[in-house]
Amino acid sequence: MSAVVAEGLSKRFGETEALQGVDFQIERGTVLGLLGPNGAGKTTVVRILCTLLRPDAGRAVIDGIDVLAEPRRARARIGLTGQFAAVDERLTGFENLQHVGRLFHLRTAEARRRARELLERFDLDEAADRVARTYSGGMRRRLDIAMSLIGRPSVLFLDEPTTGLDPRSRQGMWDVIDELGRSGTTTLLTTQYLDEADRLADEIVVIDHGTAIARGTADELKRRVGGELVEVVLADPADAGRVVELLAPRACGTVGAQAEGSVVTVPMDDLTGVVPAVVRDLDSAGIEVVDVRTRRSTLDDVFFALTGHPATDEEAGTEPGTEGAAGADPAAPAAGEAGVRR
Amino acid sequence: MSGGASASVDTLAAPDAREETPSGLTWALRDSWTEASRHLRALPRNPEVLAFSTIQPVMFVLLFTYVFGGSIRVPGFDDYKQFLLPGIFAQTVLFGSTFAAVGLAEDMSKGIADRLRSLPMYPPAVLVGRTFADLLRNLITFVVMLAVAFAIGFRFEGTLAEAAAATALLLSFAYAFTWVNALLGVSVGSVEAANSASFTWIFPLTFVSSAFVDPSTMPSWLEPIARNNPFTIATNAVRALYNGRAAGSDLWLALAWAAAITVVFGFLACRKFTSSTR
Fold first, then answer.
1. C-alpha–C-alpha distance, residues B83 and B73, integer Å
2. Are A173 and A271 in the same domain?
3. How confident is the model at residue A259 (pLDDT cuts 50, 70, 90)?
4. Is A128 among the domain residues?
5. Which chain A residues touch B12 with a CB distance below 8 Å?
6. Testing the interface with A: which of B118, B186, B274, B277 to mutate, by most A Cβ within 10 A?
7. Are residues A149 and A170 in the same domain?
8. Interface contact A80-B114, CB threshold 8 A
9. CA torsion sign, B205 to B211 to B215 to B220?
10. Does ipTM come in above 0.95?
11. C-alpha angle with apex A267: A262 to A272, nearest 5 degrees?
């Protein structure tokens, strides 16, 4: 039995179709990455599964419990780490944990024991008795995740856990999530960072404009655009159209032009003998080339191939009640990196 | 991220080792107390809140008494202090009710409310706990204010029972308005909005009243508003009781207002907070 089943989830906010029939399942003990740009509907999915929002249509099941019919039973099974570190800044790390433990109705001694255990586990034992106001962003995030684990949830929801973190804290958070995944905690991770999903998720569902547009392992998704890419850097971007036409017969997928036409990307199944052939083609057509290079395709390429726009689309993210506030965070690391190809 | 593999498995993944959640009233009371204790524990650590709850009321008592006290005469009261201070008590505890708006708006905007609503707790306990903690904080405010009032010459002129009744009325009236502010706090989007929204109605409510002057001195269009203001009714009842005079229908009317506001706004605030359609 899947730990999480989402079936036909639909939700409308006023004029905006936030979700238009999203389906997926999460096998027990695996990490599902819900990948999409700001405003794609990722947070709406999480809020529905966490009983915070009622969908207009569809079904959500956690551990066999229908979250719409029995929200209270479902709540006993889940842990939620939202986009903001939901810690009470006036309380110490220990008190924050103990508080959530008590609301999970653990016995006092058990709540304390779990609190201490988790503080140690998340490298917060030295800061345990300091009020959370004095914590760094990374420490708050770790405390936040620890708080969502105190009730030993069978499903953990991590909604953009690294948004707003500096690169070092982000790396630390990845290690934490990696270890959670390896310890068999069923996890739904939302992210707008392709490298994050690639690294942490067993399976990825790509979501855009409220619709799941692709699913599979990172490798399966990469195969859809070819495992390898040849990039041709042009001296004159005006040649892009001709080059796309010229190389299309050699490609296993759609040949695309990026960076205002100065880079043409050719997806390939196999690179054997390809580079000399491409160079010959270009040379005989008299096209001036700055560079011809190869690389393994990334999830950026997948996203571009699937949606026609980069993963971090600045025009998205304006839906009310979905990803709004956190998505606007200008401090988000690598916000531009993920979608821009060089 | 230290700790060996076996330790982490024990810490992180033991999904079925949970206790049965309590049910019914036990559940509601226990969770409400847990939430109240969160705020009570934080109270001594929050200097702004403590200052607002103690220093500001003391300042009000002293400012109003010495700045306005000399120039205002109220018929039936030889000493303006005996008239004024019950009004200041009432206004200050009502100001104290606005903490609920700001505190809840903060919980909502920081994701704490979402975390709490995703826990297997009694959802309205978030509001019940908050308002209860605010009631206790208001009691502390009141005691500090009363001590200062006594130091500058205020006296209970009636029986101790009357004074106790006056105090109980004051606090229950403020508690009722805590629920109005709780509704505001869970409805508006930000802490700043909650703060200005609550003071927008608290100022006219407390000033267009009998708290500082006799309403008969007000313009004729304002006087009936001031007279029928529930805050005037409560202030009159409290003032009468502290001064050993008959509170008459004001007492019952004020209690009825407090009860009605608590029930109506308590229901609305809890419904707003727990509704899953936001």
1. 10
2. no
3. low
4. no
5. 121, 149, 179-180, 183-185
6. B118
7. yes
8. yes
9. negative
10. no
11. 110
Extract the tokens encoding A25: 């399942």
Report the number of distinct structural domains present in chain A: 2
In this model, does residue B197 exceed pLDDT 60?
Answer: yes
Higher pLDDT, B57 or A225: B57
Threshold 0.90, pTM exceeds: no
- Mean pLDDT to the nearest integer, A153-178: 88
* pLDDT-derived band at B21, boundaries 50, 70, 90: low
Do A151 and A210 lie in one domain? The reply is: yes
Residue A195 has pLDDT above 70, yes or no: yes
Residue B97, classed as helix, strand or coil, is: coil
Give bridge partners of residue B199 from the DSSP assignment. Answer: none
Question: Would you call A14 exposed, middle or buried from its count of C-beta atoms within 10 A (0-12, 13-18, 19+)?
Answer: exposed
Which residue among A99, A105, A175 places its CB closest to the CB of B1? A175
Tell me if A151 and B3 make a contact (CB, 8 A cut-off): no
Q: What is the mean pLDDT of chain A?
A: 84
Domain hosting A251: range is 226-296
Distance, in Å, from the CA atom of A147 to the CA atom of A99, rounded to the nearest integer, reads 9
* Closest Cα in chain B to A144: B115
The per-residue pLDDT for A326 is 37
A172 interface with B at CB cutoff 8 Å? yes
- Specify whether A44 is located in the same domain as A158: yes
B272 CB near a chain A CB, below 8 Å? no
Which of A47, A80, A91 comes nearest B115 by C-beta? A80
